[in-house]
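Inner membrane protein yjcH
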Amino acid sequence: MDDVQVQRILQNPKFKQMVSKKSTLSWTLTIIMLVVYVGFMLLVGYNKEFLMSSFSGGVTTWGIPLGLGIIVLSFVLCGVYSYIANNTLDQLTAEAMKEVEAIAHEKSNTNNSNVSGGESV
């Protein structure tokens, strides 16, 4: 693959759309997870009393459900990513790959015809 093909692929609207949507989704979910996790760490660092206080008047403190909530959130975000990737991004990726393959084959077919057309026996 030469530089011209690479540039045509990078400028392809379907390829750009696929990269943009994947990037937006990945960064959105990453930011959600980081905000929640950093928020929990800040809570641990600056308000230990709240985390040590009883959740229900018994032995369970607020730290337990909040910590479990972060773990559950990570599984939920993985599920959200999988659902969106399987229902939206895979179709977009397939469409983009068809166009990318067409660009790649276009150049290789041109090279093959030049090689075979230039030879005479």
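thats it. Residues 33 and 74 are 7 Å apart (CA to CA). Helices lie at 3-11, 13-46, 48-52, 63-118. bye
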